[in-house]
Specification:
Blueprint: H1 4-7, H2 16-35, E1 40-43, H3 55-72, E2 79-82, H4 87-100
Parallel strand pairs: 1-2
Length: 107
Amino acid sequence: KMSLDKKFTKSSFENNDAEKLLRDCYLNSLKLADKYALYTISFPSISTGAFGYPKEKATEIALNTVQDFFDNNATSIREVNFVNFTETDNNYYIQQAKIMFSDLNVI
């Protein structure tokens, strides 16, 4: 069992291992939610606080990972919420979502 806090350090931002670990946090959570037939899951902006992972990159990873999961899996999950601490964090998600989902009405 590997925990993110033992592997991820601020000096590893440029390292693909940090990106993979972050992606796996979202992916493994989605898999668990689906395993237990949950309909809704919520995520904070993982690793952007105390770990200092760049927020724009973390947002991109989070949204892409969730989209990839839905594109490649039949799932019980019907709603994914991203819960952000600051308005700035929320704006990163809104901006990225508008780019990724231009055909949807993103607020």
